[in-house]
Amino acid sequence: MKKILVVDDELCTMRALYRILKLEGFEISASSSVDEGIATIEMLNNTCDQLDLIIADIQMPGKTGMDLLLKVKEFYPGLPVIIITGYGSPQIERIFRETGCVDFIYKPFSPEELITSIKKVFNNN
Amino acid sequence: MENLINCSDRLLWIVDTTGKIANVRGKNEDSIGYSEKELIGKNIIKLFPVEEQHKLFNYFKSHSNNTSYLFESNLISKESILISCKINLSTIKIHNDDYFLFCIRENKLERILYYDLINRIHDNTIDDLILGIMHEINNPNNFLMLNIPYLQNIFQFLLPIVDEYYKKNPENKLCGFDWNYIRDELNVLMGDINMGINRIKRITSSLTDFLVDETSMDEINLLDVINSTSEDLKENLKSEKINLYKNYDKLKRIKIRGNSKSLKSAISNIIHNSIESFENSVLEKCISIQTKLHPGSQSSITTITDTGCGIPSESIFKIFNPFYTTKRDKNQVGLGLYIAKYIIKKHGGQIFIESEPDKWTKITVKLPYLTACKGE
Questions:
Q1: Cα–Cα nearest to B276, from B309, B253, B247, B252
Q2: Cβ-defined contact of B150 to A19 (cutoff 8 Å)
């Protein structure tokens, strides 16, 4: 079963994503901040229970999705990151894509859009 | 060489031709945060922000022995801090192998947080405001968009159970209505909610057109932009049976400084406005695009004229106002021409409109050009 970490500070988004991903048969870990997310990645990595994908928001209290992406690219370069954001700017998308996120999804998105993106990532891998 | 390497206020990196750091000197850990051990083997490109990497590529592509290249760039530190540096890049030979020597001096006063870059890109108030509004609307709208399909599934699951209940208890009302009425209304209700969500989405996504990427303004051919926009709208024009005519006054190229994507969006919005003006029209539907030069003012003049319904004189002055539309019932949000005007102004241009009700509308776009050439 593929394991996905969702990093988003919005509880409502988190609950909705949890339901959608669970229905699709994924195993979900959830973190409400970047620090918590990084701690989860490290913890899972140490127990050899590795993640297959991260879905992260950009704007969160404290560190941002860019901090998370840079950290993942440096220490877990093979771990794909999908960015979901309400900041729908093409310039921000360009920077995130060039930094290495595998997909950049603008909020609001439908469950199908997200699932299509996830399946594409797993198929490519 | 050793003397050079021992300069205390600089960092020195020796980089092989694949971009990997082979050796370093200087107080790297104090400055960029990485220890000597962490730097060796690292690809140097990764220490440069994406926006600045072209400076390296330019040198790597065109370098020749004994030439050096002095440039300013930011480097990304271990803590993701952007450090402004003066860099002297040259080539050296070590044991007959070619290497690049980076001599780096930090402008210590100019440190900024790397993730501030995201804010710095949109460093004027309107862009900040737009991004803020989009974020605040898109997030709650996302809750709706993700949850409504789930709710719909739940209703589908519950329908036979409730049907069964009302078969046995037909006299019971639900919210004051018969169950059969509510049952039919559920789909309409969900459809209306989805329509609302999508309308909000359309409004916020059209706001992105305001974010003209001034960092990627290039020399572009205006005629290519117009051609590519009309090509994208070809199917749309065909299905509405609209003839499109283009006349570029024998011009082959008009070089302007701009952002293709934004300008395409502006022209597309203007053409869309023309397409909508043909609603219910039985006469021949024509849109003509003409571009010529006005060398006196170093401007290109593009006119987009349609033979549609025209605009009454009492509303023509409102046409560039935000959220002004006469087609709210057709799900129009009234931002198209406002966005077009905003983008044209960002390109140093001007936009004008003239119209004769029931006959035609002409929109004129004036943009400064750099060079132009005529051809067959």
A1: B309
A2: yes
Same domain, B283 and B352: yes
Inter-chain residue contact B200 with A108, CB threshold 8 Å: yes
Asked whether the beta carbons of residue A66 and residue B115 sit closer than 8 angstroms, the reply is yes
B168 and B52 in a common domain: no
- The string of pLDDT tens digits covering residues B5-24 is 344 567 888 888 888 898 88
Per CATH, which fold does A3-124 belong to? Rossmann fold (3.40.50)
B139: nearest CA partner in chain A: A86
Residues in chain B with CB shorter than 8 Å from the CB of A109 are 142, 145-146
Q: How many angstroms separate the CA of residue A17 from the nearest CA in chain B?
A: 8
- Residue B142, chain A, CB below 8 Å: the answer is yes
A65: how many CB neighbours lie within 10 A of its CB?
A: 27
- Do residues B227 and B349 both lie within one domain? yes
B296-338 tens-digit pLDDT? 888 999 999 999 989 888 888 888 887 788 776 666 778 889 8
Using CB atoms within 10 A of its CB, is residue B172 exposed (0-12), middle (13-18) or buried (19+)?
exposed
Q: What SS3 class is residue B150?
A: helix
Helix, strand or coil for residue B55? helix
This prediction's pTM: 0.57
Determine the distance in angstroms separating the CA of B140 from the nearest CA of chain A, rounded to an integer: 8
| Global ipTM | 0.86
